[in-house]
Amino acid sequence: MRTAQDDKDTAGDIDSGDYRFWHVLVRDDFTSQLCGTRRNLQVHHISYRSHCGADSANNLLTVCQACHAAIHGGHIMLGACGG
Ligand SMILES: [Zn+2]
User: Fold this and answer.
1) For the purposes of burial, counting CB atoms within 10 Å of the CB of 77, is it exposed (0-12), middle (13-18) or buried (19 or more)?
2) Residue 32 C-alpha to ligand 1 middle, in angstroms?
3) Whole-model pTM?
4) Looking at the predicted structure, is the pLDDT value of residue 53 above 60?
5) Closest alpha carbon to 60 in 27, 14, 83
6) Amino acid 73: pLDDT
7) How far is the CA of 55 from the centre of ligand 1 (A)?
């Protein structure tokens, strides 16, 4: 269920046993789509739910923990909603 943590886009922490987005991992071949590693994988929301993001596969991307942190730190820019 939703918790306060979801505000920080921690929905896909695979290491903690969260397999809600298993289909995304399968689609992305269990590989970080940014750096190619297969370790510490998480699922990133390309567009934040609080904006126009959704829990659809098109809006989810498999990344590793390091890439995920880089995205949220502003070091990696992904396509946002509205182009
Ligand atoms: Zn990575």
Assistant:
1) exposed
2) 5
3) 0.66
4) no
5) 27
6) 92
7) 21
Provide the residues around ligand 1 (an ion) whose CB is within 5 A: 32, 34-35, 64, 67
What local confidence, expressed as pLDDT, does residue 67 receive?
95
Distance CA 79, CA 19 (A): 24
* Domain range annotation of the chain: 4-72
Query: Which pair of structure tokens corresponds to residue 63?
Result: 């990344």
Distance from the alpha carbon of residue 28 to the mean position of ligand 1, in angstroms: 12
Token representation of residue 6: 């979801």
What residues form DSSP beta bridges with 25?
none
- Encode pLDDT of 14-49 as tens digits: 555 556 688 899 999 999 999 999 999 999 988 765
